[in-house]
Amino acid sequence: MDAETEPPVVELTDEDEKRFHAPRAVRDLSAQVLSTSFAKFSTPEMDEGFDDIQYEWQKEAAAKDFLKDWLLNKKRTTRIEDIKPGQMFKDKRAEFQKLTQSWQEKLEAFKAGGAKKPEKKPDEEDDVDIFSVPDVCDVGEEVPLFDLFVYEDWELSKLRFELALLLLSFKTDCNDEDREGMPLDHVNFYCNRYYGEGINTKKYGMTDLKGVLGLVKDTVSIKDGLVHSQLSDGLENLDIFIKLTEQALRDRMRRIDAGDETVRLKFAPPPQPKPKPEPKPVVEAKPEAEAAPNGAAEPGTEPASQGMDEQKGGGKGGKDKSKGWGKDQGKAWGGKDEQKGWGKGGKNEQKGWGKQGGKW
Fold this sequence. Notes:
Elements lengths: L13 H5 L12 H7 L22 H18 L9 H26 L38 H24 L7 E2 L3 H9 L13 H6 L5 E4 L2 E4 L10 H18 L103
Antiparallel strand pairs: 1-3, 2-3
């Protein structure tokens, strides 16, 4: 008989210690139903009509804290599938697009006019205070604040605005105080919901979304896996995105001048517009020759019915020696063609088929 041995001791991990419910192979709710309803889960309350409420696993306070933590974690890992852009999003987006077009037209007019930014004196300050400029289109002598903007700067200005508007609209449209930020893993999903496309990291010369967001740290930040806005919720003055982009441009130029090449932008080249097809030349139709009166032929020509073309004479009395179809030539029924005379009195000595000319 084997000696009695002690049963093995089960060792639990930290994750096992926090788990109060065994995982099930078959879920009570489908993933779709759970994702659209879990935010309404709550512990029972006496004012809901219960005679008595008993907590078996944990006390009431601990059970409520457990449910709260579960809900917060669920909100960080579950997308809002049915979220839709609100009217505020549509209005702000249209306003920024209109402003951007006017800014770019202002810059084109400034460059076309041949005007240049006044050179600073050696004892002058480096630049004016960007965020104190009342009009970004005129910082003095009609010089726009964005006079050095190129393709990359306009794209970064647009990226700042779209991310700030996305976070503000997400917070407004979901209407949930617990959703303080947007999960980093869901940013592209919500970009598709609001803008119809995700963020193309290669366009900005980056390999992942974190790298792209790092280009606009003055607008968004990442904390505990959530993306937060660095701006106020109102977005009242949209020229803030021009000012932030100008500030970043100056900082980047100073660092490049100091020898720091790591900050140089490496955007993909902008898409080239397709060349317009050249219009086809218009060929004017030549006016038709006026018909001679009474069907008469033009001077120097003969009527078609009586032509003497030796190759294709088709008239009744034509003399075409090749394919003449007249009564006296070719295949006429009374003709004297010595090769293929088909007439009744033909004298063709080779294949004459007339009564007098050959053999039956």
